[in-house]
Amino acid sequence: MMMMSLNHAPWASHSPLARRPRAFSSSSSTLSRATTHARSSNTSSTTSSSTTTDSRRQLGDTAVPVAAAAATEQAPPTTLSVDRRAALLSAAAAAATLALSPPTPAYSATPPTPSERPTARVALTFGLADRAVKSAADRTLGDRSIIPLDDAAQNELGTVVVALYGGRAPATAANLVAATNAGLLDGTTVSRIIPGEYIQLGRQGARRQGEVELPKGFSLKPNSDVSSAAALRVGAGDRPGTVALSLGENDEDPAVRSRPGYVPFEFFITTGPGPAPRLNDANVAFGRVESGFDVLAAVVRTPTFEPDARQRQLNRFAAFVGDERADKVARRYGRPLRAVVVLKAAVLDQEEGGGGGGGAVAAAAVAG
User: Fold this and answer.
1) How far apart are CA 18 and CA 72, in angstroms?
2) Which residues of the chain does CATH 2.40.100.10 include?
3) What was the pLDDT predicted at 346?
4) What is the pLDDT of residues 303-328, one digit of tens each?
5) Residue whose C-alpha is closest to residue 250's, from 304, 216, 205, 292
6) CB neighbour burial string for 266-277, b if at least 16 within 10 angstroms, e if fewer
7) CA distance 98 to 16
8) I need a surface site. Which of 41, 144, 185, 256 has the fewest CB within 10 A?
9) 3-state secondary structure of 345
10) How far is CA 68 from CA 11, 77, 90, 109, 283, in A?
11) Residue 136 CA to chain centroid, in angstroms?
12) Residue 109 and residue 64 in contact, taking contact as beta carbons nearer than 8 Å
């Protein structure tokens, strides 16, 4: 079982700060090197910014050694006019000042710490129905769900396996493990699909409508991760396959969020292909997809409710003037027109003692 580490990405070693002149001299050769340094400063800074990796922490990352900087050509000594020499003296002095700053250390690969290892793995099996809800003819008196579960079971898309990092967001990971073991995700639906960004599931509400309904005697753990700087620091939208607690993207009904003892549970899985930086700093990343990206791609292809630009403008204006219906309409954006159902959710393995906290995954191997 592969263990993954989480580290800051290093600064590129070929930054202009990494190439410093050894000392300042009044000789013509030193002035020539200072001239070359001054002329190439813009090009060097551009190269550095384009090759420097994002310093945001990401779940499951392993530090990569920094690439060696390419050698720069030294221009031959040239005869400078007095005016040019006077102008370049200041540039050489600035370069010498940069040489006094301490070098930036390169990060090396380090063994994973307990907080950076998966503490549990959860398998989510998806199915796709022909329509969003059952037709009137298919509904029966006392029907427990209006979602066409049987149709979805006949069109299984596959399984997505996610690794949870309870050391980074212990309460969030523990709540997902507990809800999965209780069967609360079985028969629920994907509530929102935003192509190029994420799919969202775990919406709380009525089970009859394909939402997560907490039974009597079951409660989610109070979640302190929502106010944890360490949990919010991990980029939720930096890469595809990130599993994050929906805070900024939460589309649950306000009546649900206002219930006494309400605890956020809805989560999303980023789908890519590129990053979605707007999701950063507003959602709690607590897991990563290990397998099943092809299944995510199949889910993303599901048609959704997408209003045109004019309807969006009208809805924004309605929200501006205080029309409460605007928020209700906005929550329907990205709603699948065919039910994408979680046919089965199962905990594959988890550390001894639950889904939160640090430590390696204990091979419990619970059958999915």
Assistant:
1) 12
2) 116-302+338-350
3) 96
4) 997 766 777 777 777 777 777 776 66
5) 205
6) bbbbbbbeebbe
7) 9
8) 144
9) strand
10) 12, 27, 29, 16, 36
11) 40
12) yes
Is 207 buried (19+), middle (13-18) or exposed (0-12) by CB count in 10 A? middle
The one-character DSSP state at 220 is: P
116-302+338-350 placed in CATH 1.10.10.10: no
What is the reported pLDDT for 330?
65
Helix axes 28-39, 82-100, angle to 10 degrees: 80
Cα-Cα end-to-end distance for the chain: 17
- Omega of the bond leading into 273 within 30 degrees of 0 (cis): yes
Determine the Cα–Cα distance for residues 219 and 143; give it in Å rounded to an integer.
25
d(CA 282, CA 245): 9
Q: For 2-48, what is each residue's pLDDT tens digit?
A: 444 444 444 344 444 444 444 434 444 444 454 454 454 444 444 44
- To the nearest whole number, what is the mean pLDDT of the chain? 74
Cα–Cα nearest to 121, from 366, 295, 296, 298: 366
DSSP H or E run through 309 = helix 309-320
> Measured between alpha carbons, how far is 184 from 263 in angstroms, rounded to an integer?
15
Distances (CA, A) of 291 to 163, 294, 296: 10, 8, 10
List the structure tokens of 56: 């945001």
The SS3 assignment for 20 reads: coil
Of 89-98, 104-113, 120-129, the poorest mean pLDDT is in 104-113
Distance CA 288, CA 116 (A): 12
